[in-house]
Design goal:
There is one protein chain. The protein is an alpha+beta fold and 122 residues long. The strands form 2 sheets. It has a 4-stranded antiparallel β-sheet, covered by helices on one side. A two-stranded antiparallel sheet has the order 5-6. It starts with 11 loop residues before the first helix and ends in an 18-residue tail after the last helix. It has one domain. The chain has helices at residues 12-20, 80-88, 100-104, and strands spanning 28-32, 39-43, 48-50, 59-61, 68-70, 77-79.
């Protein structure tokens, strides 16, 4: 088991059930802000960052390399190109990867396979 969350760890059905449908061909992954650690669910098929684990209607699109998402945690600009590099696992993107322990302690823990999906998001 990897020390980082990867696509096979995500319960896609639960994400969809909670409002994550985004076009019918969803491909989800998680990244985090390398500065503050704020975690984002990404639909990399539709170029969307979900910014709130409790409300999946809160989402931001990013389609072009220069698109910027202001971090919900620290306000630092997150460039679409950086997000794409992290999703590919490019060299130098380890700070963008989401450690399993941090993920399971986060408000996104409900999205893990074999989690208690009915628990309240604190």
């Amino acid at each position: 088991m990897s020390q980082f969350i990867n696509e096979t760890d995500i319960d896609f059905r639960e994400v969809i059930r909670r409002g994550g449908a985004n076009g019918g061909d969803e491909d989800f992954a998680f990244v985090r802000c390398p500065t503050c650690g704020y975690i984002y669910l990404i639909d990399y098929e539709i170029d969307t960052a979900f910014v709130d684990a409790a409300d999946l209607t809160r989402r931001v699109g990013f389609s072009y390399d220069g698109d910027v998402i202001p971090c919900s945690g620290c306000g630092k600009p997150l460039l679409a190109g950086q997000i794409w590099a992290a999703l590919r696992g490019d060299e130098g993107t380890i700070a963008w990867q989401v450690p399993r322990e941090a993920f399971l302690a986060s408000k996104w823990a409900w999205a893990a396979k074999n989690s208690d999906s009915d628990k309240t998001i604190a």
